[in-house]
Model the fold of this input.
Amino acid sequence: MRWLREPLVQFLLIGAVLFVVFDLRGGAAGGGQRIVVTPGQVDAVAAGFRRTWNRPPNEQELKAQLDEYVREEIAVREAVALGLDRDDTVIRRRLRQKFEFAAEDAFEATPPTDAELQAHLDTYPDNFRTEARLSLRQVHLGPQRGHALQDDARQMLERLQAAGPDTDIRTLGDSRLLPASLENTALGEVARIFGDEFAGALLKAEPGRWVGPVRSGYGLHVVIVDGREGGQLPALADVRPLVERDFLAGRRQRALDAMYERLLARYPVVIERRSRATAAPASAAAAEPAR
Amino acid sequence: MRTHSLRRSKLAALPAGALAAAIAGVLALPTSASAQADAGAPDKAKLEKVHPSKPGYSPYAGRTFPTLPLFGDTHLHTSYSLDAGAFGARLTPKDAYRFARGEEITSNTGQPVKLSRPLDFLVVADHSDGMGFFPQLMGGDPEVLATPQGRKWYDQIKGGQGAEAAMDIIASFSGNKMPKGFPTPGTPAYRNAWQETIKAAEAYNEPGRFTAFIGYEWTAGGSSNLHRNVVFRGNGAQAGLVEPFTTLPPLGSGDPVDLWKWMAATEQKTGTEVLAIAHNGNVSNGLMFPVVETFGKKLDRDYVQTRARWEPLYEVTQTKGTGEAHPFLSPNDEFANFELWDKGNLDGTATKAKDMLEFEYARSALKNGLKLEEQLGTNPYKFGMIGSSDAHNGLAALEEDNFFGKTAPQEPSPERMTKAFIDNQKTGVKVMDWEVGASGYAAVWATENTREAIFDAMKRRETYATTGPRMAVRFFGGWDFTPADANNRMPAVIGYAKGVPMGGDLKSAPQGKSPTFLVAALKDAIGANLDRIQVVKGWVDKEGKTQERVYDVAVSGGRKIEADGRAKAPVGNTVDIENATWANSIGAPELITVWKDPQFDARQRAFYYARVIEIPTPRWTAYDAKRFGIKPLPGTTMVLQERAYTAPIWYTP
Done:
C-alpha cells in the first residue's frame, strides 16, 4: 500500500472525509449556520483595539468592532460558498506566500551547525574579513593652484622628505576641512573620506616615509603612512551572528529552490504554447516583472 | 538540543558593543553628546581648554563632538507597502537593509544593483494602513473582491495593468474610499507584517557600522498628503509592544493630533522614544503647515506645542519633488526653481492654486512659525531639514548615475523617461516619470553610528538634507566668530566652542552684537565641486510681516560678492549632456567662511540656514538617454545643481 503514504493521496483522502462530514452537517449553502463569537475571539478583537489606542474599547466601540467581525465572517463564508476564492491570482499568491512562510519557518527552526557556519566562513572569507587599518598624515594641495599644482606637490614632497617623518604639518596644506591625520582607521573609512583611489594607493605605500603626490577628488596629497594593519579573518566565535545571518539568507533561498525542485518531481508539467504569430504582445507586463 | 542551547548562550554572552568595536574601531567615538555651547559670550575657560597653550600632538584626542556626518534614508518602502506591492515591488525589508549597507542585490526587475558606497542608516517605513504584502491586502479578504473597486483592481492586475491599479489604489486610499475588509491592526496578517519589519531591522542593525531603525509611515490626509514617518529610538522588543497607528477609522485617524496622542501613549507603554517626520507638503494643497485652523479647529497653544514636541524634522526633498522654496514665494531666489512638483495634490485629483503654496514649502513654514511663536508662545515649525527617498521598491538608490526610480516599473528601462506618472484627464494634472527626482538623503551629525546617537541628533535637529550627494556641511552660529576662525584647521572645534551647531538657538543678543556664522562645506569625495554657500535668513519685521533674504556667503572661482550680498555671475557649466559627463574644472572642493548678518535687529525673531550648491552635473535623465540611446521628450530637465539644506539656527529676542 505504498501509494497510501503519498502526501497527495493523503491530502485527497482527508479532503474527501471533510467533504462528507461537512455535507452531513448541513450542506455547503452559506446561509443558516450559526456564527459563534467565542470569549477568546472577543478578547482578540478588544486586544486589537487596545494595541492601536493603548486603552480598552468602551462598550459601544467594542460592539462596533464585533459587528464588523461578524460581517467579515459572513462575507467570508458567503464568498467562499460562491467560489470567489477560486482561480483568483491574488488569493493564489497569498496562499503561495503562506506556504513559503511556513516552509521558511521550518528552515529557520533548524539552527545551523558550527560545521556549517565554519564552512560558510571558509567559503566566503571576504564577507567577514576585518578591514585593513591605516594611520596616516596628509598635506593637501587643492586645484585652485591651477597649473602649478603638480610642481607644488612635488616640492612639498621634497620638503617633507627632507624634514623627516616627525615634522609638524599643522600649518601646511590648503584644506581646512579634510583631516590632516587619521589614526588606526579602517580602509573603508579612509575611502569614505578621501575616495577609493586615495585609499587604494596607500595600501601599497611604504610606511614611515613621505610619499606622493597621491590623487583624490580634492586634489593632490603628500602622505605618510604611520602604521598599517592587514585585514584578518576572524574566528567563527567572534563573528558568529554575522556568519549565521549571512548563512541563513543563502540557505533560505537554497532550501526554497530545493523544495520546489522536490515538489516539481511529483507534477508532470505540460506547457501548451501558442504559435508565435498568435502570441499575445509581451509589453503589457510592465507591472509584473519576471523574477 | 543540548548543543543548540549551548550555542545560544554563547551567542548571548557576546557583548553587543565588542562586535561593533571590532568592526568600526575608530568610528566609535565617545558616546557623550556634544556639549552644545551656550548662546551667550563664550566661556573663557572653555576656549582655554580648546586652545591650550601647549596642545598635545593628536588634535582628535579628547573631543566629543560629531566628526563625520552619517548618511541615510528615513523613508523607504518595500513590498510590504500596499501601493509598492501593486506597482510590482518584490523586495522585502531585509533586502532593503542589505542593499543600504552596501551589498549587491537583484532589483525587482531582475537587474543587479549596488550603491557606490554603503549608507550609514536606514528606516524601512512601510505604510501602516494595510501593512503587509500586497496580495495579503487585497487577497486576504474575499470581501474586498466583492466590491466594485476590488474587482476592478483584480481585473487590472490580471490584465497586466498593475501600475494603473496601483495609482487607483493610491487615489482610493487618499480619498478615504478603500473597500471594506482592508486589513487593520490586531489581525494576525497585520501583526505578522509588523513583526517581520521589526525582525529585519533587528537582524541588520550593527551598532558602530550600520543602523537599521524600526519605523513606519502614517499615510494620512487623503489626497492632500499629511504623511508622517514614525521612527523608534528603541529596539524590537520595545517596538513590538505596539502596532503602528493607522489612518482609517474606526481604529485609526487621519488627524495628526491623534497620531501625536498615539506617540505619547507609545512612549509610555514602550519606555522608548519616537519622533515623526512630515514630508511632501508640496502635494498637500495648502494643508501641511496651517497657520489659522486645521481639521475645523483653530490653531491653539496645544496644537503648536504638541507639533513642536513630536516633529523635530521635516523631509524637504525626495523623489516626489523638493519643497524648500518656490519661485512664486521667493521671486528673488534664482535657485528656488528646483525639482518642483507644483501641479496638484498627491494623486492629481485637484490642481494647485497659488495661494496654497505658502502653507506647503519649508521656507514659508519656517517664517510663519516665527509669527505663530509670537502669537501662541511656541513655534510649531521649528524643524531641521533632511532628505529621503520615498522610493517604493526597497532601493535607496538616489545617485543620478545609479538611480533605480521611485517604483518598480521606474527601475532603469528605455521607457521610464517617456511615460506618465500621474495623468488625470479630469483635472489635467499630468506628471511625467522624468519629473521624478533622484533625491535625497538625510545627513546627521551623530556622535556614533547607533540608533540612540542618530535619533538623539535628529531630536536636537543637528541634520541637513542633501539631494543625493554626500557633501559634509558645517553650520555654527554665535556672537563672536571672527574671519580668522575660517582659517582654522579644526573649524568644528571652534564652532562648538564659540557657538551652537545647526538646529540650535541663539537668544537675547549681547548689546550691539550681530549674530555671526561659521559655515563650511566639503564636496562629496567622489562628487562634483561646489558652486557656492548661501545663508537664507527669514524674520518678522516691525510691522509683524515675515521677510526673507538670500545671501551668497562663500563662492568659488574668485567671483565677487556684491554689496547686496549676492554673487550674480553663475559658476559656469561643464556638462556634456550627450555623453552624460562633467568636469570638476570649475567650482571648489571646499568652501568656508565666517558671515555676519549685516541687517540684524535684536528685537526681531529670525532664523538662518545654509544652502550649499554644487556645480551643474548631469541629471539621471541624461544618464538614461546616453545608456539607453533614447531621445528625451521636449522640456525634459537634463542638468541640475545638487544641493544641501541645513537645519536653521533660530534667533529669539
